[in-house]
Write a structure and sequence with these properties.
BTG1 protein; globular; 13% strand; BTG-like_sf; BTG; alpha+beta; 4-stranded antiparallel beta sheet
Length: 164
């Protein structure tokens, strides 16, 4: 990895940060300048967090560590970036889906809203080495599905969360 990881992660990280920023914008009430600032802070936080956990040769390695998750608890990277622009956790919970999982892996960024929503791919690029990933059949590429998925069906059950 080393210094090369930073450049390699750029597209994946900016895709993920842009997605979270878009969700915030859709929630309303956050200024463009704040959003731009939030996006930059989130990208910085992700770059720092993923620095030694980015394995292009084994893209799934470290996936849990890089997973951004909101599940009645705010993801620390999002929370930190939002804090820098003065957004409280309470406000974030109002603006963002209450259950969001965002996977930021080499060559692919995908997300799911709600615990049983479908997994949607935001960014995908062929892996060097030519082996095209064919395990995508099960995933739907749902462009703007998140607009409709504001509330998740059941809020009463407890989720097992894996802490990094």
């Amino acid at each position: 990895a080393g210094s090369g990881a930073g450049a390699a992660m750029r597209t994946e990280i900016s895709t993920a940060a842009a997605f979270v920023t878009r969700l915030l914008r859709a929630g309303g009430g956050v200024g463009e300048e704040q959003l731009r600032c939030f996006r930059e802070r989130l990208q910085e936080a992700m770059r720092e967090h993923y620095k030694h956990h980015w394995f292009p040769l084994v893209p799934s390695k470290g996936s849990g560590y890089r997973c951004i998750r909101i599940n009645h608890k705010m993801d620390p990277l999002i929370g930190k970036a939002a804090g820098m622009i003065g957004l409280s956790h309470e406000r974030l919970f109002q603006l963002l889906p209450s259950e969001l999982t965002l996977w930021v892996d080499p060559f692919e960024v995908s997300y799911r809203i709600g615990e049983d929503g479908s997994i949607c791919v935001l960014y995908e690029s062929p892996q060097p080495g030519g082996k095209a990933a064919k395990q995508l059949e099960s995933r739907t590429s749902c462009k703007e599905e998140w607009r409709t998925g504001r509330s998740s069906p059941s809020k009463s059950y407890n989720m097992m969360t894996v802490s990094s």
